[in-house]
Amino acid sequence: MIAAHRPRPRHGTSVPELAGGRSPQRYEVTRDSESDPVACRAVTVGRDEMLARHARFDVVGIGNALVDVIAHAPDSFLTDHALVKGWMDLIDTERAVHLYQALGSAVEMSGGSAANTMCGVASFGGAAAYIGKVSADDLGNVFGHDLLAVGVQFRPGAFDNDVPTGRCIIVVTPDAERTMNTYLGASSLLCVDDIDVGAVAHGRVLYMEGYLYDRAEAKQAFRHAARVAHEAGRMVSLTLSDSFCVDRHRDDFLSLVDDEVDLLFGNESELMALYQTETFEASIVELRRHCPLAAVTIGAKGSIVVTSDELIEIPAVPVRRVVDTTGAGDLYASGFLYGLTTGVSLAEAGHFGSIAAAEVISHVGPRPLVELRTLVE
Amino acid sequence: MIAAHRPRPRHGTSVPELAGGRSPQRYEVTRDSESDPVACRAVTVGRDEMLARHARFDVVGIGNALVDVIAHAPDSFLTDHALVKGWMDLIDTERAVHLYQALGSAVEMSGGSAANTMCGVASFGGAAAYIGKVSADDLGNVFGHDLLAVGVQFRPGAFDNDVPTGRCIIVVTPDAERTMNTYLGASSLLCVDDIDVGAVAHGRVLYMEGYLYDRAEAKQAFRHAARVAHEAGRMVSLTLSDSFCVDRHRDDFLSLVDDEVDLLFGNESELMALYQTETFEASIVELRRHCPLAAVTIGAKGSIVVTSDELIEIPAVPVRRVVDTTGAGDLYASGFLYGLTTGVSLAEAGHFGSIAAAEVISHVGPRPLVELRTLVE
User: Fold this and answer.
1) How far is CA B311 from CA A109, A160, B237, in A?
2) Which pLDDT belongs to residue A23?
3) Which residues 131-160 of chain A have a CB within 8 Å of chain B?
4) pTM above 0.80?
């Protein structure tokens, strides 16, 4: 089956389709557009211009604020509990309790996809902020501490509920693959009011985590944050996060990418899910027509940076032993984003991503254990 | 200075002093003794007899239920915060918040000295139970889960307060030494009512953690548990935990060992603190007169098992790299206790201790990562 999706016109403006894709230009939408989208002022802004503007932060991330509960288990644990290796499942309280009880000793450490990415950006030496919702409980404190400890500015939104801080139960099998079961808790309550518009307007790149797309309020918050970023002339990026998340919200993702995304992160299965293609190559063809810039991870083979006129292959950085792949994609994104904001070439930005991913898969846990800046000096 | 302490008469019964120490016999105290201690019935019970009695648990531990917050930091962190390497400090909420804020990213995992020991016993294949107080919060759940996950029966006492679960902030310096800062929280509220007398009466050995001795209610709880154990003909053991803890409560410790302890665990500095001797050798002389059986760790050199008529030197099991010494003493005790309850020789029990200690210092975290039973099969 070939891609069902075709690019849609953007805010009533017809998008010029070039051979091989669109040029990396953006349409800046002023505040007026909210009252009358058709009358919006479309201003072409290039990538370099967006990134060059003075900013307080290099990257501002928005995502599900989660503490990871990491435990090792044999493959039989997955089959016994109807878990599919490598997937992320959303679970309710009951299932969270059941799975946790069935697991062996666990270690708790801060996680959350976009939060991991922001820690990576900070570890490279970039200025990063993070917007995500926790509760005023132990795990919420842990989450906030671990961001601040590496220099990421944390904007937790309002503590307005009794829902506990979200947690992701990660089962690591002997092959180092991780299977994730997420109880969203407070993180899923992120809404428009939690978006610190000051931070978003002052970040060179806004980075949004697709996982958050599972709730309507979060979708609105994304739209809001993206508009604020674009009004301030900033770049907007999105990571697709998970092919099943993409399946659940395909139309919304397509429309978001169409309207607001300047830079897309994803892997092979996520892109094939987004464009409903049978081959990875076919999804890349769609991607080039749909988004000005993308960084696509392809597992152990590395990644491909995709623009309208370039396909840049980035090899993975070899590691002695893969211990735990948790955070590989998150840290890849951190390297790429850091590279972009410091003005290196796209190929070099991709290489920064490979370096960060290699570091994080060499040990247990989703965040770097060494200062990533020391690996690129 | 030579030992100020001399063994005291036990419940009004004069203790026969043999050349080189006392024989490993015990005086069983019946419930009547509580109303009239002088009229207690002293029954001589040998070690083998105590251990041979049918029991539901091999070891029942009582201790401070703590979640460890482990972070790596340079030596300068210790001097900047007036911490003395290798020590354990009790800290209040304010200091806990301050230290935690100053630290980098941390990992949370269940700890607590006696709880680590019970996990070790279970990991060897022994039946273990643990009595310690947590709160009904995230860290309390984590603590309980990690015990149950390795098969330790958890008796948490009543959730009767708003005090959060205790935590131990552990700073690991590059030399793998750990410096501990304990906010006791709920764990310090353990009292007589929290002692599950059924569990204590059905455990071959009661194992009590000296750290708990910092509060009067806990001292009473220890006395109560020890009496229950002895009434049921069980063995009572104590670990001194920390030389400063011993300094703070020397008389109480001496009296407890005198009255109730059949097996004492400690290290060089703890024993010298207990007996106020200037040399380790002098403290061993005192120890042999005071307690029928002791297992004394001497750091990288291993341990010495001390009875009235034997001094058995147990070499350490070498490890490729010492990563984190947290839990070394706790796991040594687990091996020794497991060995005792399975009827191996004292030398072999000490060797089990060395094996368990070697495993736990080879990685971050205070509990074994492999099934200890596989290391002694």
Assistant:
1) 44, 63, 19
2) 40
3) 137-139, 142, 145-146, 148-150
4) no
